[in-house]
Amino acid sequence: MEVIREIAKIGDKEIILETGKIAKQANSVVLTLGETVVLVAVTMSREPKNLPFMPLTVEFRDANAAAGKIPGGYFKREGRPTEKEILTCRLSDRPIRPLFPKSYRYDTQVIGSVLSNDLQNEPDVLAMTGASAGLMLSPAPWAGPVAGIRVARVGGKLIAFPTFDEIEASDLTVIVSCTRDEIVMVEAGAKQVSESDMIDALMFAKDQSLPLIEAQERLQKRAGKPKIEWKDPEIDQEFRTNVMDRARADMTAALEILGKHERHSAIAAVKDKVAAELGDAAAGREEEISSAIGKLEKQLVRKSTIAGRRVDGRKTTDIRPIYIEVHPLTRPHGSVLFQRGETQAITTTTLGTERDAQRLDTIRGDVNNTFLLHYNFPPYCVGEARPMRGTSRREIGHGALAHRALEGVLPDSETFPYTIRIVSDTTESNGSSSMAAVCGGCLSMMDAGVPITAPVAGIAMGLIQEGDQFAVLSDILGDEDHLGDMDFKCCGTAEGITALQMDMKIHGLPREVLEQALEQARVGRLYILGKMLEQLAEPRPDISQYAPRVETVWVKIDKIRSIIGPGGKVIRGITEQTGVVININDDGRVTLASADMKAIDRAKAIIEGLTFEAEPGQYYNGVVKRIVDFGAFVEIMPGTDGLVHISELENRRIDNVTDVLSEGDDCIVKVVNIDDTGRIRLSRKQAFGVDPDEVLNLRG
């Protein structure tokens, strides 16, 4: 067994790449950072498949056993991939897919598995680099390598490969995939940072990733298999030119049509017309005709865009017409219809209690997720009829981007103790549907009365580059995404960026182009924010009448058992009596939720009675419950009373308590002291002349 190892040193971190020991029947590499170890195995079929697409699949599993943990639930084994695992698959897939030859048809699979997880060094970026290293070792004709790196800014300092604790403390986190010379993919989240700060982080990531690129190149030289000699299928240039020449005039006219479906129908008609003109010469060559028509469309669109006219007639910086309807639906707690051009989303916000939080069994333990954002992309939104097979990876990825964009402006749980769920249903789509989820999600929260710290908007940017000429496009269409060179989504407030996502289809994105794209995105984002605030300037002061009211009561930790009671008897009784949903946290925070405020007040009074403790020196408005020869027992809280000794009733000597008080009388008393057994001594005379504002009335 020959084990080959290379080390990439980045700052004070060492990442070890090793092959030849584990999974030797695949093209495998093991990456180690700290005590986190990830195995990535790449396999490919012996022969190419007869398919109209590239059969590449990427999988990732973060096993509980890697962290010394047994899964929760009844089955005690990992099932379908979690959202975190799916997002890691996407991080690995997106940068490697464009680097295969377009006609590559070998069935190729990349599987990443976490063997050890130290719960500080994140395995996702190791899986990204591992996918690249495995492909470098394989016979696949792949134009890598790429390196995955995470950068966080903590206390103003940029850190490569930050620990989990450093990520939690950061105000800017980016995951970047780089080749030797350029950035090819970005996922970023931030707390309203400036465009220049974001560019600095991206450039820092690019520079720091170079040792990983070099380590992969060294590993390939030592252990790589010979690459398949790849040649793209020969193209009949004469036939292609003939098709393109026949279609040019009609294609130019079709591309003048502004509507998406009308334009696509016209393009399909061009293809049918050319095939009919070719007659017998077109038999069996339908795929070649489609390829030629597609190439012509791409040439004409890109040429027109570089010249300053886009597919739908806009200039490069123009935003499509925006239509917003706030609260179109009555029952959802917050709702918005957001439309930009031919992209439309109905977005709702639902407010729930802590019991509605998503409880996740994660590697790091149980997590209660109180902010949910779900993005849906049904087939009808693009006019298609196809099966709906559950949530797609694309929907999870777009939802995660929108979640990241809005998460940073949420109020803290003490200010707003609700579980918040946003659902964005894409009802029409022609590009930027995830950004509609961001804009609609923000407005629907504001409509629901969520006191966000700042409104957020999102915009999708594009790029078309021809030689030395390029055009940065604001608010791209689906066709511009398909035919262009970059998909660049930027979300943020008026103050700065909250989320960023970028995928490149070309080699090379100079800093000046990135700066222009971010600045153009900032201007577009502010324009969209202005349109949003015209419809709803600030969060509504009150939540929906259909939403539960939530109040918070703090009790001493040792009093929690008094509220719960033996076997939960007391808390069940309060719920049955009032109808209020009660949730008790280990830190003494008790949340009460109900649509009826009077019911909350009743439950609150009961809990305060169960947990009440008199405070020495505090004044209370009490009622005389019982008179005895040596004084009076005064109730200062339902179920809680104390003794006012006869000597503490008046500033003069009295012979009988009844000369001063009768049962049922109200009187203001002061707590003198509480003895070791909990008995309360009160004084009436020490409360004479007290300011009424200092007196507590806890008797309901």
In words, what does this structure look like?
The chain is 30% helix and 31% strand. By secondary structure, it is α+β, with helices and mostly antiparallel strands. The protein has 5 domains: 220 residues, Ribosomal Protein S5, domain 2, CATH 3.30.230.70; 71 residues, Orthogonal Bundle (Arc Repressor Mutant, subunit A), CATH 1.10.10.400; 214 residues, 2-Layer Sandwich (Ribosomal Protein S5, domain 2), CATH 3.30.230.70; 63 residues, Ribosomal Protein S8, Chain: A, domain 1, CATH 3.30.1370.10; 70 residues, Beta Barrel (OB fold (Dihydrolipoamide Acetyltransferase, E2P)). The strands form 6 sheets. Strands 8-7-9-10-21-20-18-19 form an 8-stranded antiparallel sheet, sandwiched between helices. Strands 1-2-3-4-6-5 form a 6-stranded mixed sheet. The protein has a 5-stranded mixed sheet with strand order 11-12-13-17-16. Strand 2 and strand 3 form a beta hairpin. Its EC number is 2.7.7.8. Involved in mRNA degradation. Catalyzes the phosphorolysis of single-stranded polyribonucleotides processively in the 3'- to 5'-direction. This is Polyribonucleotide nucleotidyltransferase. It is found in: Cytoplasm.
Spell out the blueprint of helices and strands.
Elements: E1 4-10, E2 13-19, E3 27-33, E4 36-48, E5 56-61, H1 83-96, E6 106-116, H2 124-137, E7 147-154, E8 157-160, H3 164-169, E9 172-178, E10 183-193, H4 195-208, H5 210-223, H6 237-254, H7 260-278, H8 286-306, E11 322-326, E12 334-340, E13 343-352, E14 358-362, E15 365-369, E16 371-376, H9 393-407, E17 419-428, H10 433-448, E18 457-466, E19 469-474, H11 478-483, E20 486-492, E21 497-504, H12 511-535, E22 549-554, H13 560-564, H14 569-578, E23 581-584, E24 589-594, H15 597-611, E25 619-628, E26 631-637, E27 640-645, E28 666-674, E29 680-683, E30 695-696
Parallel strand pairs: 5-6, 16-17, 25-30, 27-29
Antiparallel strand pairs: 1-2, 2-3, 3-4, 4-6, 7-8, 7-9, 9-10, 10-21, 11-12, 12-13, 13-17, 14-15, 18-19, 18-20, 20-21, 22-24, 23-24, 25-26, 25-28, 26-27, 28-29
